[in-house]
Every structure is written in C-alpha cells, then in structure tokens.
C-alpha cells in the first residue's frame, strides 16, 4: 500500500483524485531540513518516512514562490502562513511590488520504497547532508541517505491578488491563474492545472508502469 505522507488534509483530498484507493494518508511530520529548494526537503522527508513506515511512501512538499521577493516564502511557506498569515503576505506583496506580482506554486513529490530503481540525481548537496544526518541521528543516517528517491515536480504560474474565494486551502485565495484564484475554482478545476495536479499526473504515469 502507498502512504501519502502529509499532515495537511487539503493535500490528501487533491492527491486521492489522481491515485487509486490503495493510497492512505500517513500523518507523519518528517524533519524538514533547511534548504532553499523543495527537492532536498522532500527527498530527505521521503527517506525518513520510508524508514518510519516500512512501506512505499510519497512525500509532498510545496510552496508559494513570489518572483519579486526572490522566491520568498518558497520552502518557508508553511512557517510564513502560520506566523504572518496569507492576508499579510498579500499586503506585503501589494506594498512592495508592482503589478502583476508574478508568483508560482511549486510541488515536489518524492517517492521511496526501499527498492533500487533508477533514482533521480540526488538533490541533497553535501551541506544539506550534514544537516539531514544530524536530524536523523537516532536512525542509521548513512543507510537512510543511501535510499533511492524519485522526484516529480509540478509548477503553475500566476499572480498575487487580494484574497478571493473560499475553496482550497493555504495560499489559494491570493493566487490567481487565468482570471480566477485557486480558492474560486472547484476542486477538480484546481487539480487539473495546479502544481500538485501536475506532479501527481507525472507520478501516476510512472507508478502505473512499474
Ligand atoms: P506537510 O508538510 O505535513 O505535508 P504542510 O502544510 O506543512 O504539510 P508544506 O510543508 O509543503 O505543507 O508547506 C506548504 C505551504 O504551502 C503550506 O503553508 C500550505 O498551506 C501551502 N500550500 C501548499 N500547497 C498549496 C496549495 O495547493 N494551495 C495553497 N497553498 C498551498
Ligand atoms: Na510541513
């Protein structure tokens, strides 16, 4: 059975649209290593979650990248949502940036099942490895780092707008794509074009062929 590793119910609802009934949520809060990109965070999370679960795992790491803020909040999106809140992120962008305030949502899915397969090039560089090893000290850090991980990326472009709509979750109300915010879209509309939907479609194709 495939475990979708996240503490976020919103992600699970979207993922289940792309994956069959054989998938269940694993509510596991893996260590988020500090990195400027999502790949290393997701890869480390997938290895840690696989060691924890002993079953195939798919980790979903996502974030909002605002162009005019050099990608902020990016990998820190969850922290910034919890501390400042989405509305404040909009107000900061409105105060500091000219229209159209371009941004993108990015999602990286990281798959690990302990089997050797053609893994993605390891996205964790040497500095991140040290951090990851320190966090995973209670496990066998070296063995964990050797686990192959396959990454799938999805990106969607849009712009930061005043909050509209009450669907979705997180930053959806302030992210507009094609005239609608993600929070104004139906679940299937969002899933058809979103960063998560795109990454899930790639994963589902690869997984079905295994
Ligand atoms: P897990 O790490 O347990 O999966 P999380 O919510 O902390 O749950 P992330 O670390 O990936 O997830 O943080 C992503 C942040 O970006 C968080 O604030 C989410 O609300 C937000 N986010 C992710 N996907 C989103 C989406 O599709 N729409 C709006 N906001 C999203
Ligand atoms: Na998180």
From TrEMBL:
It comes from Haloferax litoreum. Keywords: Hydrolase. GO terms for cellular component: cytoplasm. SUPFAM superfamilies: ITPase-like. InterPro entries: ITPase-like_fam, RdgB/HAM1. It comes from the Archaea. Belongs to the HAM1 NTPase family. GO terms for biological process: nucleoside triphosphate catabolic process. Signal peptide: none annotated. This is Non-canonical purine NTP pyrophosphatase. One of its GO terms (molecular function) is nucleoside triphosphate diphosphatase activity. PANTHER family: INOSINE TRIPHOSPHATE PYROPHOSPHATASE, INOSINE TRIPHOSPHATE PYROPHOSPHATASE/HAM1 PROTEIN.
